[in-house]
Amino acid sequence: MRKLVQISFLLLMTAWGAYAQNQVVSGRVTSSDDGSGLPGVSVSVKGSTQGTLTDATGTYRLNVGTNATIVFSFIGFTTTEESVNNRSTINVVLKTDVRNLNEVVVTGYGQQIKRDLTGNIAKVKAADIQDQPVTTFDQALQGKAAGVQINAGSGKLGQGIQVRVRGQSSVSASNQPLYVVDGTPVTTDNLSFNSAATNPLADINPQDIESVDILKDASAGAIYGARAANGVVLITTKKGKAGRTNITFGAQYGSSKPTRKLQFLNTEQYVNFYNKAAANSDRIEGLDPADPDSYSSYMKGFYETQGLGTYGTPQQVSTNWGDLAYQDAPYQQYDLNLNGGNEKTTFYMSGQILDQKGILLGNALKRYSGRLNLDHQVSSRLRVGINMGLTRTFNQRISADNQFDNPMQMVALPPMTPSIDPTTGLPVGTPPGDISIPTYYNPMINIGNAYFNTTVYRTLTNVFGQLQIAKGLSFRTEFGLDVLNQQEELYYNSKTQRNFGAPQGIGQNRYVRVENYTTNNFFTYNLLFGRSVLDLTAGMSYQQSQQKTNFTEGRDFPSDAYRQIISAARKTDGSSTQTDYRFLSYFARANYKFSDRYLVGLSARVDGSSRFGLNSRYGFFPAASAGWVLSEEDFLKNSTTISFLKLRASYGQTGNAEIQNFPQLGLFTGDASYGTLPGQRPSQLANPDLKWETTNQFDVGVDFGILNNRINGEIDYYNKQTSGLLLSVNVPGTTGFATQFRNVGSLENKGFEFVLNTENLTGAFRWTTNLNAATNTNKITNLQGQIIEGGINAMSRAVEGQPLGVFFTQEYAGVDPANGDALWYKNTKNADGSIDRSTTNVYGQAQRVVVGSPLPKWTAGMTNTFSYKGFTLSVLFNGVFGNKINFYGVGRYSSANGRYEDNQTVDQLAAWTPQNTNTNVPEARLYYNNGAQSSSRFILDGSFVRLRSATLSYNLPKALINRVKLTNVRLFVTGQNLLTFTNYTGWDPEVNADYIVSNIAQGYDFYTAPQARTITGGINIGF
Description:
By secondary structure, this protein is mainly beta. The chain contains twelve helices and 53 strands. It has a 22-stranded antiparallel beta barrel. The protein has a five-stranded mixed β-sheet with strand order 10-15-16-13-14. The N and C termini lie far apart (66 Å).
């Protein structure tokens, strides 16, 4: 019996020892740079062949002995060893070993280090966008990524911003990239009920962003299939880190001013100019200037009605209406965040208050945002988490650029008209004063008497669970929710009647709710065998979005004290709509690495969309890429000059599905009522074969590092061929319809991208430079002979053989020195086929020709950072070159030689006279089109270089702040849009008039607000 007990005890101890030698250790390996998880790290037991790799989030799981030593190794990082010592959780932070190769890049459903990339992904870090005085993070990206052009359009707050990744890929579908926040594709559509687009990205707090990764080529973007043709922007929000709880508080204050103001005529100049213009018109028509019916007599009466005779002489009243369009624009922002946790649970919490006034009269934006990101290790196998952001954005908007109550249009008002009526003390033109003065509506009347407010409540939430199924194999499920509630309230009272034609007031209310659900479910498998590393991803995604809209309008309120539509005597309009779309997708990716030098990537996605026909419901989008790290080969491995060299190439296919919902269906509309009887009518012809636009993209590039990567960069060439353009084309009238949506035509984008990063000086004084530049050539290659026109006077075109949106109009030839007539080149064909380049003063004899493109040929950005003993100065310049801007919208009124009574820009003082014959400005003639017609005279060079931002900061010494129990104190001053170097004669070369902008109509300036020059000072305090 005793012997049996001894044997049993021995077996128990053996079993216990065997268990102890095979305990499970798990944890996460992160980068010392930004705390992000490192995928593909080799995790092995020292002295054995036992090992594994970290998954896409840097997590690993390994069976080891209690006294084992685990070795963590990764190219680009220093190798780290950790003794187990009975621990079940071991988290490791790997330190950088090689500059710029260790960056963790988000690839969509996973991560890679930059060294192993075979695609082209541009990464922008949190430090690059923090504390910038901008309302949306996309503004902070300007000039920071090669091949990514960002045009803010105007200086209005919360306004839609144009982002283009490697050019324009569509004529009628969206050219905006897909935005994905923490794995969830988010709503970015314009939801405004007027032509001035809003920017849903304004609901994301830039201070919460950890990184922005821009997928530019097909091999990087094909994992997002049908929506990746315009690039994909992956936004990762900040996460907590294990350790003590860190509290950071930030505050900044500042103000904004317009970057530039145009000079218009003062009263004396105005009177002299229009006296000449009127006299010139009298001369042409043979009228006596003293004749009551002459142009000269008309202008004298005009001066009097506009205030000159009533309010004083030219020296007494000279209103600078242009200055009155702007207001004091203070800026204040407060941020508070907490992050920390332990080995099992980490958290990040933040809150922000942003209060900013715009530079234009009546424009302001307030944002309150909060975020909670939690990550919990339930067990060695299961990790769960939630990323949740809540935002309230309140935008006091102003009218679209083409409306008379847009403050920018005040520049057209005659300067002899005072801004305040001395008899009433109210803005001139306000009842009970004479509402016909000034010439046009006075936007100052809107203050206190009108509003256009947009309130948005937004929640962006993503919950996930990740299960480690077996060694190297994990499963992740995500559910994302993006709910956007937007209410627009517009009200104009009786004092604004001249603007809206509503003597007793008008109110409009529009409510939009967008519910956007996404679920991602995918497996990842990491395998290390011999000198090979294999990383596999496969899964499915489903997205469903529903938009509901309600609108109502009321007119005639009992008094100006009533502003809600319930009080309106007449309910004059109302509607409700609903629209939905769905995507069902399956995706897979394989990355293979051999001997740390040979890289291969394969990916594919199958997308099904409710937007396309029954015969083309699903599309297949594959991509392949390869890379060769030459610096790992024996002939370069020991080079003292070349520290890194990689060749890569890729080819793949992506799609564009961003068009209106239901274009494939035969639709009916229920608006065909007759009398009191309801009725419906067919409104759209079905096309069951309608499918996505398809973009095939080839990319070849080289990544290099010199002198231990003190000099490193990238050079890329790409060629994007888009086919099956989604267009509404004419169909035979026998169908009963005029148009039908079809896949017609093709276009291309091709160009080069250059990135260069240098560490110019190291040591106590450090100087680094980051330079990027890109060229892009856009051309429509096939539209089946169609010509699609747009813009003011149809001056913009989509036509074969030309860039999208090319300007097409008469070519201005200057001024006839003999008589001051405007001249144009005929550009007609001679009998022998040559072009007649002679000039004519008869506008109708000149043919329209291509006179320029709104698309830039080059874009560039350069950041220089200097640091010394706690001081850091960062300076960013960016430039846009080779594009044209259409100033005709403003020019035909304010630079058109007195065509109407609008005030003129001061350059019109150079108009032709018998004494001034050497000029490019035709003779001023009141009510005559002497050069005021649409032509290349108003197509101006839009190239510019801008000092986009400059930040000077100082970190107080640790020895000082530790005395008061602080971890860091940073003081900073930041300037935005400080200097602009341009030949453009309008307000601002970074322009896109909001009432007309489309894929075809681009680069228009129509009294569009300039960008704001903002200077702020702030402090960040860490506890």
